[in-house]
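Continuing the batch. This is chain 6 of the set; chains 1 through 5 are on the previous pages. Same settings as before, nothing changed between runs. Recording input and output for traceability.
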Amino acid sequence: MSLNFNTIEWKDNQLYLIDQRILPQREEYISFNTVSEVAFAIKDMVVRGAPAIGVTAAFGIAIAARDSAATDYETFKQDIGSACEELFATRPTAINLKWGLDRMKAVCEANQELLLPELKARLLKEAQDILDEDIATNRQIGAHGATLLESNQTVLTHCNAGALATAGHGTALGVIYSAVEAGKNINVLADETRPFLQGARLTAWELNKNEVPVKVITDNMAGHLMKLGKIQAVVVGSDRIAANGDVANKIGTYNVAILAKAHNIPFYVAAPVSTIDPETAHGDDIPIEERPHEEVTNFFQQATTPKGVAVHNPAFDVTPNNLVSAIITERGIMRAPYGEAIAKLFN
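Output for chain 6:
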């Protein structure tokens, strides 16, 4: 399936991102030309989704390299290190951010014999390679995951793990896109995903734009529809998967997983291997980002709660591995016991 928008694009020597804060009202693309601008784009959720954040951060390092005034390698390396620190501080939960930055740092260190103009070009190429590889990875995830879906099924998804959350094709929605490409008739229910409405605004927008049948439901409707037999599978993405298979994803995912288990509905997680963090033993060790409270108290500059009322706004929750039916990666489909499967994957 050929998608008709670009989430991330490098052209005219600058980074362009679709502004996900204003979808679906307007489809606009913004250029970013400094490391601080890229850091803002990640922090303010111009771009979001773990794989997309990792790719964007890589281009942030390419920009840092381009703009470095260093005349020797050691000073240049310090400039790259400072940029990595600034970008790493933006979003703590998505492990792909660290993965992308670590990959760029490794290229910098492995090619220190190059002249600085050549090293700068090499880093830009690495960022572009990361983007291209992400799309290829998502297509592999989609191909594996599509085998788990049957024609005429209705699939529930939470948040947005589509082309908007990656460099292209998507993880959870990539599974759906690939199933559609294979000729299967798939209908999608998109949780609205409060408080940022990634499902209502983003998942619905991109599926509708690509002519995949989708209906939006509020976050508290899933159990009712499962009880009525109107949902046959759940597919979500992930921002970090622990070594034991516990899954961090957008807040509300845990609720959906519990409901799916209670109704004997398969709960699938689609994510690249780069989302798996073998250094984090279990989900309790995954840092959970606390987002600005204004995301709950206001929406599109309209107050939704009484002034002065306290709120809590964790961006993610953790779904225990015993609620996960399968983890779909580019290398295949993993099933429990996930600790063994993940250890084998990395060994």
